Automatic annotation (TrEMBL):
Its EC number is 2.1.1.-. Gene3D superfamilies: Vaccinia Virus protein VP39. This is tRNA 5-carboxymethoxyuridine methyltransferase. Pfam families: Methyltransf_12 (PF08242). It comes from the Bacteria. S-adenosyl-L-methionine binds at R27, G49, G50, D70, H111.
Amino acid sequence: MNKDRIFDGIAEKFSNNIYGTTKGQLRHTLLCDVLEPYLTKPVRVIEIGGGTGVMTAHIASKGHSVVLTDASKDVLKQAEVLLADAPTITIRHQYLQQIEDLNSFDLVICHAVLEWLDAPFDAIDFMYKSMKPGARLSLSFFNQDANLFANAIYGNFDYIEKGMKAKKQVRLNPKQPLSAMRVVEHCESLGFKVIEKAGIRCFHDYMRDITHQSSKFDDLLALERQYHKRAPYLWLGKYFQLILEKETD
């Protein structure tokens, strides 16, 4: 039985939670920023777990051919509406490890997927083995280290003591956050070359006055852009993004 979490039945809530908030808008903008240098020439792209297709639409708008996959039929229905007029996009209903043609893509995008999987490191292994030499992977995931830091700031000491496992799992709370440093070490052990590291939302989620998340959004975005690739701030991103390359033999 597959224990991965998918979003059938709550697709609209999922979409609103991501793109209808400052945290979602900021995350999308910063992810696009990091990807930009790798989209300067035509590449064949696959987005794994691409959901409603917002990132896919952004990449296709730059002239690239994109395959969008997701395990949820409901979110793909929303993607079909958003991407209806995009001839360079193909939509496929697939679980990650059902993808048989990963070696035909130049750029693999897997954003905010690992933390919903029952075996996230197996997923990384699968992508590495399936990708062709020289291909790149943009990997982002919910950062367990930043999650602990945030809960300490909030005073949630009992929650931390219990291993940050809630008695009742909220469906939009990530199933399995990952330590950024551990993921970096694992990717390098497989043979990935780390081209770039970036924290996504290094400051936004820690603001004491949450009204500033919207009222000072432009200033906040400028600050995130200035520091999100610099240590130590990048390690505090609520999400962590890696650009990885499968080195040639």
